[in-house]
Amino acid sequence: MKIGTAAIDGRERVVVLLDDPGDLAVLLPATLPGVGELAADWPRWRPRVEEAVERAGAEGVAAEPMDDLTWLPPVPRPGKVVCVALNNSANKDRIMSGPEHPATFPKPTTSLVGHQQPIRIRPEYGRVHPEPELAVVIGRGGRDIAREDALDHVFGYTIINDLTSPTMRAEDTFHYRAIHPDPERPGDATAIRYVDTWVSYPGRYKGADTFGPIGPWIVTRDEVPDPHDLTIQCTHQGRVVTKDSTANLKHKVADVLSFLSSYSTLEPGDIIAMGTALKPSGAGSAVQNVDLATLGGPISVSITGIGELSNPVELG
Amino acid sequence: MKIGTAAIDGRERVVVLLDDPGDLAVLLPATLPGVGELAADWPRWRPRVEEAVERAGAEGVAAEPMDDLTWLPPVPRPGKVVCVALNNSANKDRIMSGPEHPATFPKPTTSLVGHQQPIRIRPEYGRVHPEPELAVVIGRGGRDIAREDALDHVFGYTIINDLTSPTMRAEDTFHYRAIHPDPERPGDATAIRYVDTWVSYPGRYKGADTFGPIGPWIVTRDEVPDPHDLTIQCTHQGRVVTKDSTANLKHKVADVLSFLSSYSTLEPGDIIAMGTALKPSGAGSAVQNVDLATLGGPISVSITGIGELSNPVELG
């Protein structure tokens, strides 16, 4: 099932895409809860959602053309959005040192926007490039989830464009002398030494408003038999920039959820962005060369079996 | 007014501390909304909250001793928690390069815990040290807030202990060759060059469960005439580790809110952690030397006029 959220007369409404034709969406009755709550106990809610869709059909309620809807993020206010960094095998020869486990950073929920909503870029942001990614939506939450149980905690999959400003990243990196305990005076609480350290802070370069286009909808897990057999493509102004496969993700969905839940509780509706598809397309390009701040939009990301997320760009 | 959130019979309840004696708390009726909603329109809600406190007194409803309460984060599920990095004038001589504006990172809401709730540290986390900070709680939200209007958007102030693992920070730092456009071939979308880059990802070293003790409560803005005239003290197992003043924060509350809102919408209940009080105490020590993973707790942070946040530590 394809399920998402749209704004109808200023209110959030859950919408379900019809299987045929797939560009028509049924609004669920407002008596049903939001997508985050549905995800928390999908086995219980699914029959009620299916019943509501059938009833709408039987009662001749008009379905909405998907392009007429104002799309919101499929989970409008997730508890957290966690992104896996540098998780593509194409990165391997670029990494001089880094962890063997998935490294992550959060994106604030205020950075999310729905399908077709504008990406807003200000002059002071500098360069802004797209990062096309598969996103996992958590169903049942948990802590210390075993690798073999991890996919049971997935509600479904969606698409995220993890917009990034390398200009702001460079600006928000500190080269400084971190205070560490002095290993030569272990018993002495006043003994410190300075260690040359580079630390970068992602609040701005990853977290600015509209830097997280997501959607258009979630495809529930049962319709995605293998999340690592999906083609992901990024298209800028109609030109293919990147075409890659989720097979190239170094850390797989089950590994990421298991490791993440070893230090952070997963909650229903949480979004986990799996890392960027980086392989340049046959045309020979790189997402980092698509500077939306100078080139404008639209910028689109499609994943086989999920759909296409597309967003215009507003400069200034 | 001191206002916070406690768990009573498994439910979140808003509590108000009595002025005299200050260690007694009144539970507000469950018909009033949570602290985040109260903060969104405090001028409207304040009379109703004050009336509820008075009525409880008149009706002889017993106030609860504060130590008997199970404290939750004062805003249990803020939309975002934004922390300002390296914002103390004591850092000045340690920074070789870095931005002139406030650099920030988000902490996930799942990292927050209330006063007296245990900090849980696992062996694989390595070293974990406290970072005592003043936290701003947003009232009225907004975007592009002028510096001179910024304090009008503050609901109140609380205390946060921005726990940090330097071990996980080192592990989650990549040294890699970032892809940048080639400046010598500006028109060529396929032209890239590699730039030696250090990037660190804070999802784990700042965002693990229980790495965000916060509270015990919020002191509303009217009772904090100058947020930059407060003494902040960190005490470990009864010994003072750091004593500093919020006067030493490089970027002030109004500057931070104004700059932050130039790229990120502020929402009611959002938490802004202002950066660490780093000045070593007279006893001569540093927060970085207080390794909670080996020394255990309790660890406490107090700020004049706000209160004391104290948390035990559970290892393993």
UniProtKB/TrEMBL annotation, chains A, B:
Gene3D superfamilies named in the record: Fumarylacetoacetase-like, C-terminal domain
SUPFAM superfamilies: FAH
Residue ranges constituting the Fumarylacetoacetase-like C-terminal domain according to the UniProt record: 80-313
Molecular functions (GO terms): hydrolase activity
InterPro entries reported for this sequence: FAH, Fumarylacetoacetase-like_C, Fumarylacetoacetase_C_sf
A Pfam family hit: FAA_hydrolase
Keywords carried by this UniProt record: Hydrolase, Metal-binding
Domain of life assignment: Bacteria
Entry's family note: Belongs to the FAH family.
Identification of the protein by name: Fumarylacetoacetate hydrolase family protein
Lineage: Bacteria, Bacillati, Actinomycetota, Actinomycetes, Propionibacteriales
